[in-house]
Amino acid sequence: MFGCLVAGRLVQTAAQQVAEDKFVFDLPDYENINHVVVFMLGTIPFPEGMGGSVYFSYPDSNGMPVWQLLGFVTNGKPSAIFKISGLKSGEGSQHPFGTMNIVRTPSVAQIGISVELLDSLAQQTPVGNAAVSSVDSFTQFTQKMLDNFYNFASSFAVSQAQMTPSPSEMFIPANVVLKWYENFNRRLANSLLWKT
Known about the structure:
By secondary structure, the chain is an alpha+beta fold.
């Protein structure tokens, strides 16, 4: 029903079912994980009116699990990316995994998914810094493309004293590229403000 993905690792699709409505994935070497993706496999949808709250658990200094709410997945939002790198020193929150005897080892964190009513999911508050930027992928791509173009173009910049005459080539002053770059960035930022 669920999958879990960490960059540089194989996709996990065999969640351990610890209760009828609760599943966990083990995350070995969790100290080196920045983000985790939780997704539905598409084989079994949630029942009508249900979704899954997603929790991150890591062992505290005494080896006891600390659970933190990351967010949720639903039939309408079947995947989510969560930043977990800053959560390892935070405080735990209320969670539905407390009374379960889940097998774990000290160096392994876990992702827990609890199937719950959508109304209940809407009232939960995830830990603040788990959310990944809401900037869409097109905007991120555009920003990275602009940065790359500017860096590439400016790597060819030469002073007038260094230029050699070449009648077959056109030269564009670096300050013109910089002005275009700054204008485009400003317009992109303004368009994002209008979207929110």
